[in-house]
Structure formats: C-alpha cells, structure tokens
Specification:
Length: about 55
C-alpha cells in the first residue's frame, strides 16, 4: 500500500509555538499579580470567559 503525502496549508503546532513564544516574551518579567491582570485584560479583549468560571 502506497501513501501519498499532502502539503500542509495550516500548521497548528507551528502556530501554537509562535503564540506561546509571544506570550512568554510579553510576560517573562511579570509578577503573579501582573500576570493575573494580563490574563484578565486579554480575555476581556476577546470577550472570553475563564474556563470553569460560572456566569452570574
């Protein structure tokens, strides 16, 4: 059986690594409190909610 190799149009692993690197660079010297504020700010920008957080 011969397999054919398809050319990727989107590389999710590469994208995740790039995002993780960007976040690490932005947060590397932050205190825990600053990091919590950073996360809240980023979630608010995307109108997202915390996982496991119940809405009231």
């Amino acid at each position: 059986m011969k397999t054919t190799k398809k050319e990727k149009t989107f590389d999710a692993v590469k994208m995740m690594r790039e995002i993780r690197t960007k976040i690490s660079e932005e947060t590397q010297n932050m205190s825990f409190e600053q990091l919590k504020e950073y996360i809240k700010f980023k979630l608010a920008q995307k109108n997202a909610k915390l996982v496991g957080k119940k809405e009231h």
